Amino acid sequence: MRSETCAKEYGKSSIDTIWCSMKKNIILIGFMGVGKGSTARDFAKTYGIYNIDTDDLIESRTNREIKRIFKKHGEAYFRALEQETADWIEANVKGTLISCGGGFYKVNNIKKLGTVVLLDAPFDWILGRLKNAKNAKTKLAKRPLFSKIKEAKKLYEQRVGEYKKVADEVIDVQSLTQKEILEKIANIAGIND
Ligand code: S3P
Predict the structure, then answer these.
(1) How far is the CA of 6 from the centre of ligand 1 (A)?
(2) How many domains does the chain have?
(3) Distances (CA, A) of 145 to 47, 51, 142, 151, 190
């Protein structure tokens, strides 16, 4: 049975990891490629919580890849799926780290889903991170809105202020190590209290 407090104090769980619980969801937002998915996966492994990703939820709900949804039905249809996903999260998900697609912050109930944490970085840093990734080609190909760099930059400029308005907390990822980013999220989640 899972403890209500972080199992760090009590030892290890059966999967040989510390095992924590969070009262509220953490909603990780930010621009495409800033590292929301990898941060969420690292965090889940380090602190022994579950994480889910809104793009993964949409892909499993529709049994279609995001790039296919954009191609076949267009962006407006995808945004409606994001809203449906947000409604489902609001009704069903507790104590979970949720990484979101870059445009998910626009759903009308984002503030009801949990503590909204922005992973923030300059556009050029994000571009460098994507280009230097081992699987750079795949990372760019699966993101239809990153296919033209000039347009992606315009989108970033449109969104950067909006992200900050919606966020309860902002983490400047460029100046931190991955371990420091995880610790910041843990503090926000109340895990290290
Ligand atoms: C999008 C970001 C993507 C994905 C879709 C649209 C956006 O997710 O949801 O391609 O509007 O910024 P990532 O932020 O995980 O790349």
Answers:
(1) 32
(2) 1
(3) 32, 24, 9, 8, 34
